[in-house]
Amino acid sequence: MSYDLSLLGWTELLAGGLPADTVPARVSRVDRGAAEVIAADGQHHVKYSARVRRASAADPVALPCVGDWVAIRWLPEGRYEVDEVLPRSTAFVRGGVSRDSVGGLSGDGQGQVLAANVDLVFVAEPSMHSTDFADLGRIERLVALAWESGGTPVVLITKSDLFEKGLDDLLDDVRAAAPGVAVHAVSSLHGDGVELVGEYLGGSRTAVILGPSGAGKSTLVNALAGGTVMDTQQVRAADGRGRHTTVHRELIPLPGGGLIIDTPGIRRIGLYDMAEGVELVFSDIEALAELCRFGDCGHTGEPGCAVLEALESGRLPERRLVSWRKLQREAQWMASRTDARLRKEQQNKWKIIHKEMRRSGRNRP
């Protein structure tokens, strides 16, 4: 089967950076040390070259990911190999997150690219929870990541058919949590809002859909594709939580045009170099901060603090201020961890250089 790569997003700009004796392909799925790619002459399972492996060992962000454009080279033994990852127009990166010794979250300064060359980021949040109608904090976090990626976020409140009343109020709350971002209610089973979502994906535009397990991401992908391309499972009745059905990220071309990347449910989402994304999500608080009496106001009790005045008057919800402070601290922490890792790598590099210089000096006649 042959493919028109222009319908997958291939451009003349990308063609200008293609190495000699290679052909372009787009990564549709990644496995350990290999990838599934779509090239003009069909789909291929390809392994990584030594150069790609070395680059990704030094920096995990350089590892090929779903949505990447790669240069593949034909080898004498009769197979393709990924020779190089081509420059990304956008990259959806989350920070490395792990549990520390006291059960809290800590960042390791290592980023992980979830998807690349994405035009749109659909943030899927189910409208029904066992304890809440929507997790506004999670929406804020995912929208911050979306803005930072270079893609345009769109929030989708899924399973709207299960919400008996107050849907308009819920949508208003979500719009307040994501200023300037389009918010839509969607029921994939009934088809409500699906056509509207599809209109975002005209031509060769690529979207990634993110959200927790049980948010209906795969069901929405199937609705957009007009058939079953991703397995789905029902939410557990006992606690309302979803089960991981999608266990990998996959790029899916849609029959009506455009491409969509389905992703596994994300339990923990660490920030990675997210200062600008956080500022955009909390543009309302950033605007208030500009009105504070002191330029270095910490919004903790200083006189003339416009942020605290808005909080006291009820114009600014306390939940939103708490979320803003939390994401700011986490973004600063991840930035410091990343800087520390880069300094360590630079120190190790110079240690190797000095060691080689001393060895060369001893070997001189």
From TrEMBL:
Residues the record lists as binding GTP: T158, K159, S160, D161, G211, P212, S213, G214, A215, G216, K217, S218, T219
One cellular component term from this protein's GO annotations in UniProt: cytoplasm
Boundaries of every CP-type G domain copy: 106-269
An annotated Gene Ontology molecular function: GTP binding
UniProt key word Nucleotide-binding: yes
Keyword rRNA-binding: yes
A single GO BP: ribosomal small subunit biogenesis
Alphabetical list of PANTHER family matching this protein: SMALL RIBOSOMAL SUBUNIT BIOGENESIS GTPASE RSGA
Family: Belongs to the TRAFAC class YlqF/YawG GTPase family. RsgA subfamily.
Stated name of the protein: Small ribosomal subunit biogenesis GTPase RsgA
Source species of the chain: Nonomuraea solani
Lineage start: Bacteria, Bacillati, Actinomycetota, Actinomycetes, Streptosporangiales
